[in-house]
Design a protein that fits this description.
Length: 410
């Protein structure tokens, strides 16, 4: 305990200022898409079919861009829409539209139900939970198993409770644990019996091509699995180029069954005269084809891999021998999830803050911001430099050692 206190005092005295909260691309990653900013140029602004991209129209997005992302997002191009700049907006809109207008297969609007609940695999993405909280949708947490959500629990919940209308899923390299859903999990999600006829999976494939190792993990296509199981309208699939080209000015996609696409189109017709096709054309010219996306993601990987390696290296050397923490080693995505002893996560985050290291608030990855075991900390190493990641992680290790020693002594 004394040793842990002393090293923490030394850490504080250094007056560091580091940040591991931001799951966003580093400036070097954004530079990879530098050429995008000078495309399409003033000369040729026509899409493949001759459409002038500067003008109104093209409600569902440029077909050639939809072709490029059809494979990575596992949605046929004709059922994949290329829309605005953020997939979160599309997820939010689909939830709101389901509240306000009957989805295919439904009997009434979700807003007319006495209660609406969503299954939320935990830990998960805080902004998904934020959408539910904003609209009074109750969240039912379900643990992740390493192969996706615990399907025994999910199947029982959705079969018995007609108020469960939806479920958030990040099926590949999930935020924050790096979870990849197994084929069996995908099949069970597609085939499970649901008490609500208008139940929907919100399949957020945000990290579809964001590999961190030489193994490019593939998952089953949820749309194919749903169609095969006789539930063709069960899933909405989302994705974007936010962490491929430029975060905030990329292109977002949503795909689904023909019936769901028709339902979304009705809304879009009222919402817009068409998306930003100039930006979409820019993306087409930049990538050229799906292989262009794959090659580009390799360049991201070259920048991200050493940052993740720095996290593991420090955790292993500083905490490994003590057996007081566990962490994920994701094969893709943007995060490492660190589990400290139960009841210690808030204290670690507090100690780190006092020492000048910003960490994501404990509990952020859980509905209502509450981690029942107060043990999970989300680490985001993409933005700082490799040396900053190493420095910040050494500091985190000092804080974990002190929090664990304090708890032991209490
Ligand atoms: N979905 C997940 C799982 C994310 O982690 C993020 C960003 O961190 C997003 C969606 C945001 O995507 P977009 O920029 O397309 O809104």
């Amino acid at each position: 305990m004394e040793a842990a206190r002393k090293e923490y005092a030394e850490l504080r005295a250094r007056g560091l200022s580091l940040d591991l909260t931001r799951g966003k691309p580093s400036p070097e990653q954004l530079d990879l898409a530098g050429d995008l900013l000078s495309l399409p140029g003033g000369g040729d602004v026509k899409a493949a079919d001759g459409t002038d991209t500067r003008n109104y129209g093209g409600l569902l997005g440029l077909p050639e861009l939809r072709e490029i992302f059809a494979g990575p997002l596992q949605v046929p191009a004709g059922q994949l829409l290329a829309l605005g700049n953020a997939s979160l907006t599309l997820m939010h809109d689909n939830v709101v539209q389901a509240l306000l207008s009957v989805v295919p297969g439904g009997e009434r609007r979700w807003a007319d139900e006495p209660r609406v609940r969503f299954v939320c695999p935990v830990p998960g993405y805080d902004r998904h939970f934020g959408v539910c909280e904003r609209y009074g949708i109750d969240m039912v947490p379900v643990p992740l198993t390493g192969e996706g959500p615990d399907m025994d629990v999910v199947e029982e919940l959705v079969a018995s409770d007609p108020t469960i209308k939806g479920m958030w899923c990040v099926p590949k390299y999930s935020n924050p644990t790096g979870e990849v859903y197994s084929d069996e999990t995908v099949r069970r999600l597609a085939a499970m019996r649901t008490a609500a006829p208008d139940f929907r999976l919100f399949w957020d494939n945000a990290y579809a091509v964001h590999h961190l190792t030489g193994e490019r993990v593939e998952i089953l296509s949820i749309l194919d699995a749903c169609a095969e199981a006789g539930n063709p309208d069960r899933a909405f699939v989302f994705g974007s180029t936010s962490k491929i080209t430029t975060a905030g000015s990329g292109v977002a996609f949503v795909g689904s069954s023909p019936a769901n696409v028709a339902w979304m189109k009705e809304r879009l017709l009222k919402q817009t005269i068409g998306p930003d096709k100039v930006n979409q054309l820019r993306h087409v010219r930049f990538f050229r084809d799906t292989d262009g996306v794959t090659a580009h993601m390799e360049r991201h990987r070259a920048l991200l891999e050493p940052r993740f390696a720095a996290v593991y290296e420090v955790l292993e050397s500083e905490l490994g021998p003590l057996g007081i923490a566990e962490w994920t080693r994701p094969k893709g995505g943007y995060f490492v999830s660190l589990d400290v002893p139960d009841g210690c996560a808030s204290e670690v985050v507090r100690l780190a803050k006092e020492a000048g290291i910003a960490l994501t608030p404990a509990g952020a990855a859980f509905p209502y911001g509450k981690d029942p075991r107060d043990r999970e900390i989300r680490l985001a190493p993409s933005f700082p430099s490799v040396e900053e990641v190493r420095e910040a992680m050494r500091a985190v290790a000092v804080c974990v050692r002190l929090a664990a020693a304090e708890q032991e002594a209490a």
